[in-house]
Amino acid sequence: MEILMTIILLLVCLVISNIISHYVPFLPTALTQIAIGVGIALVYKEFHLEIETEWFLLLFIAPLLYNDGRHFPRDELWKMRAPIFGNAIVLVLLTTIGGGCFIHWLIPDIPLAAAFALAAILSPTDPVAVNGIAKRIHLPESVLNLVRGESLINDASGLVAFNYAVAAVVTGYFSLREAIFEFTYMFLAGAFLGLVLSLLMTWIRYSLRKKGISDVTLHSLLQLLAPFLIYIVAEEIFHASGVIAVVVGGIVHSVLREKAEPMQAEEQVLTENIWSTVSFILNGTVFLLLGLIIPPSIRSTVENPSIHNTLAVGYVLAIGIVILAIRFGWSYLFSCFEHRLKRDTNVAKPTVKMTLLISLTGVRGALTMAGVLSIPFLIESGKAFPERSLILFLAAGVILFTLLAATVFLPLLSKGETADGELFNYLDINTAKSKLLLAAMKKVRSEINDENETAAYQLLDELKQTFKQTNIDMSSKEKEGNAFLYKVKEVRLQALKVERKYMEDAMEQGEVDEQLFQFMMNAFEMREEALSRNVRSQFSFLVRNVFREWKRASGRRRNASKFQDRMAQRQAGKEIFLRSSQAALAYLEANMNELGEAPVVYSVIFDYKRIIDRLKGPGQFNASVEAQKEELRIVVMDLERSEIRRMHETGEISSEQAKDLRRMVNHIESATLFEHAE
Questions:
Q1: Which pLDDT band holds residue 620 (cuts at 50, 70, 90)?
Q2: Taking the model in full, what pTM does it have?
């Protein structure tokens, strides 16, 4: 009963903290939740909560990191692999050694090995708190991706370093060779197990579907169980890093879902909604627990007459500043090295301001507290663990210091804050809509297969038309947009050459008469001239103009006195243009890899498909195609909701903008369902 009441209390506090954050937007939700936890612990002093590191990692860290791995942009992860692994491994080592030496020098009563343990557990960063801060300010996307990427890995490296340092204090024995070997084994074995177990669970779901067991709730439950099973197998059976295993498992699951195991729309919607709820509860509960365990953890130090409270706070400030300074120094030096090494790839030149942003986003969180609480009370000789209560106090203090430093200084370093605390550097609402549409088009392209190709291309056409109708402010991305349009123009000119070649071959084979051939060649020249003159010319608009001119020309022919002759000429022109467009489309689809980037070629392909559909005439209603299109729409709308949540969490859009975008998606969903019902 006591456990049940504790869970209910935590959930109620979670609701209250989010309501408070709505009315006090300048205060990060994580800090509000910590304050509520501290308040409860101070009011109810008899309230006692023990957190074991093992179950904390299993219950909170495993599912959260698995979910992060599912949604982390893989392209960005690969692009930033050098700084991410540098921060996750090298920086952890530097923080452990440099911070440990400083702590031992500052407080000689803490043995060097124990100082290394404290510095090691202070090295992992917590991106959840940064996400809460990012909702109020607009942090650069590269900074957010870096701290999220390193947090997927540095939990494992920090825990390994911490465990070895604690073992050295307890047993008095330490072997650098064994530590390196164990870390390498845990990392590689964890990654391998994450890959294998994720593949195995995908195969199980596929086998169940093949046998007719396709209940969406069952499959959603299997996906929810995945991180727990992967973590338990990796940690308990193979003694590998469960943290690395769940991260790799999440990434592999995301890849397989896109490439080999497309989920049903209903299953995807249900799964994402479940994960959204679970991550919301776990993220909030982590910081509530942190607040609950801070007062009892530091009480011994505060009540100790031999340690002056002012001096203890001074220790916290000194250690916190040094920890952040090590992060600052490493980030700046690595950025300088990367800039010089990759100068040709336009890597941004490092600046003090950007390095400060990276440093302050290195907020420490609940993993640090859970780890430090696992320090044993006694060592092997039977004596008390040296300065355990002081170490707990210092860890809790540094966590709060990094949170407060990020809360205070990140807004000052970020541009665009007004006097009343509201921000004007959010994305324009139309720009946000365009990002949603681009993400939706990318999702539809990833879902295309032989069965739903027609429906997918029709839906892409609708999304593209909506994208064109959206009034987007291109001021910040004008150069990038012009470059994209220039590439589109080059591909269109290549396709136009194919059409011209087809027309010349048709003329040689006697399939068209001289008059029609001359008209079509003039039309090609007009289109080519328009493309060369105006990069933004719309392909379909040009085609409609050409076809309209053909109708006018055929209508003005005085030699064609009969209506049937004019209709036959128009039909001949329509058919030859249809065949030339089909030839261009076949060329584009056969040479996609050679012509350029996929989005560029797809853009031209979609235009040709739309023109071909129009030339073929109005099609009949196809119930199967409409059903497939509706299913794809549901997948797209769920993706758009996830994208809205991501943009809000990263501070790209405000709460009001997120509401407006959700209303837009809800309106589209209601209209779609109503149309289907009709």
A1: very low
A2: 0.64
In contact, 243 and 156? CB cutoff 8 Å: yes
- Give the whole-angstrom CA distance, residue 371 versus residue 118: 9
Q: Are 63 and 227 in contact (CB under 8 A)?
A: yes
Number of Cβ atoms within 10 Å of the Cβ of 19: 11
Beta-carbon contacts of 117 under 8 Å, excluding residues fewer than 6 positions away, are 100, 162, 165, 166, 168, 169, 375, 391
Query: Could you tell me the end-to-end alpha-carbon distance of the chain, in angstroms, rounded to an integer?
Result: 51
Cα–Cα dist 486/438, whole Å: 18
Can you tell me the distance from the alpha carbon of 14 to that of 8, in angstroms, rounded to the nearest whole number? 10
C-alpha to C-alpha distance for 619 and 543, rounded to whole angstroms: 20
Residue 169, Cβ density class (10 Å: 0-12 exposed, 13-18 middle, ≥19 buried):
buried
- Identify residue 167 by its one-letter amino acid code: A
Tell me the per-residue pLDDT of 316-346, one tens digit each, with 9 for 90 and over.
999 999 999 999 999 999 888 887 776 655 5
Distance set, CA 554 to CA 141, 523, 576 (Å):
57, 14, 15
Task: Give the pair of three-digit tokens for residue 575.
Answer: 């058919």
Over residues 413-429, mean pLDDT: 52
Polymer length in residues for the chain:
678
Using DSSP's 3-state secondary structure scheme, residue 44 falls into: coil
Q: Which of 114, 85, 80, 81 is nearest to 100 (CA)?
A: 114
Q: Residue written as tokens 């064109």? A: 468
Give how far the C-alpha of residue 311 lies from the chain's centroid of Cα atoms, to the nearest Å.
Answer: 42
CA-CA distance, 33 to 30, in Å (whole number)?
A: 5
Interior angle at CA 184, CA 183 and CA 189, nearest 5: 105
Instruction: Quote the Cα angle for 389-390-395, to 5°.
Output: 100
User: For residues 592-607, b (16+ Cβ closer than 10 Å) or e, as one string?
Assistant: beebbeeebbbbbbbb
The amino acid that residue 323 corresponds to is I
Both tokens of residue 173? 């024995």
106: nearest Cα among 390, 497, 326, 487: 390
Give the angle subtended at the CA of 134 by the CAs of 132 and 137, to the nearest 5°. 130
Residue found under tokens 């128009």: 570
Distance CA 526, CA 202 (A): 53
* Interacting residues of 314 by C-beta distance below 8 A, sequence separation 6+: none
